[in-house]
Write a structure and sequence with these properties.
The chain is of the alpha/beta class. The chain is about 30% helix and about 30% strand. The protein has helices spanning about 10-20, 45-55, 65-75, 90-95, 120-125, 160-185, 215-225, 290-295, 300, and strands at about 1-5, 25-30, 35, 40-45, 60, 80-85, 100-105, 115, 130-135, 145-155, 195-200, 230-235, 235-240, 245, 260, 265-270, 270-275, 280, 285-290. The protein is elongated and about 70 Å long.
Length: about 300
């Protein structure tokens, strides 16, 4: 089938690469417009746009659907579209443009976690199996019928970035198989069950609450790494926290108390301790937690270093 690929971030590039090895033909790419990046706010093409240019694929850049965009899409003569984190809600006029519609690769077990951050929200909820599926886009938010589904187990220090990468790696193949189903006139099936919403993350989602359980703190860190990142406060300064690990040490002092035990930096929480692996103090680079702890001096030995 002739496919229009619609996507924007690095995750979408991974899925695009997989689809390129399929029997289907990518006739062009639809991605968001160049956006300002860095301190100098330099206009920069999206990861998908950069990869499409390297591949010599036609590129359409648009942050919203318009008659001009519709004409550009129709000129490429796609039969179907593959959508992977494009970042723009498509109106009905867009959905009606292609013969076989727009197939979205979504990283959840729909109708669970409809929305912008499904993997992140699922991890923050403590789920240990994260799903992806292909479904036919319709006017509602992630409400369309489902073609195919697969999943990945959460392992070790997996973060949202790790899970998204794994699911995107297999996502190209999942899209390819879905297009084969469409060619065979196999209809998608309606979603079943009670939906949940996966709202876009903001900085407040990364705030660690040390009165939470070990499992809750680890789940939050998994979900917010790399963006917006986990963090807490030390007095008046915000510090960033890399992935934390469970610890066998017992809690001591109030929630958030920092200690060094057996050369490991641990923080007390409601049901024990978590181990810090890396810490980034305000104005500094990410560093080994033990190196950071050495700089805390006498207050650490007196158990007066308390994160909040």
């Amino acid at each position: 089938m002739k496919v229009l690929f619609a996507g924007t971030p690095e995750t979408a590039v991974t899925a695009l690469e997989g689809l390129l090895t399929s029997p289907h033909e990518i006739v062009g790419v639809l991605t968001r417009e160049d956006a300002p990046q860095g301190r100098k706010r330099v206009l920069t093409p999206s990861p998908v746009a950069r990869r499409a240019e390297e591949l010599g694929l036609p590129i359409i850049k648009a942050n919203r659907w318009s008659l001009e965009v519709q004409e550009q899409v129709q000129a490429l003569k796609p039969q179907v579209a593959a959508v992977v984190a494009y970042g723009t809600i498509l109106p009905q006029s867009a959905l009606d443009t292609l013969e076989h519609g727009w197939v979205n690769l979504h990283f959840s077990n729909l109708p669970l976690w409809r929305g912008a951050a499904p993997v992140q929200r699922a991890l923050m909820a403590g789920e240990d199996e994260i799903f992806s599926c292909t479904f036919l886009l319709e006017a509602g938010l992630d409400t369309g019928p489902i073609f195919m589904q697969e999943s990945a187990r959460v392992q070790g220090d997996d973060t949202a970035a790790d899970i998204l990468h794994r699911l995107a790696l297999s996502g190209g193949s999942l899209l390819s198989q879905t297009f084969e189903k469409i060619e065979q006139n196999i209809a998608p099936q309606p979603q079943q069950g009670q939906p949940t919403h996966a709202a876009k993350l903001d900085v407040s989602d990364g705030k660690i609450t040390w009165s939470d359980t070990t499992a809750e703190i680890i789940a939050r860190c998994r979900g917010v790494i790399p963006e917006p990142g986990a963090w807490c406060m030390l007095e008046q300064n915000r510090i960033k926290i890399a992935m934390v690990r469970p610890s066998l040490e017992k809690a001591a002092g109030e929630y958030g108390t920092v200690r060094v035990l057996a050369k490991k930096v641990v923080v007390s929480c409601s049901d024990g301790c978590v181990e810090l692996t890396q810490v980034q103090p305000a104005g500094k680079k990410m560093m080994n937690a033990a190196d950071w702890a050495r700089g805390l001096g006498k207050a650490l030995n007196e158990q007066k270093v308390v994160l909040s």
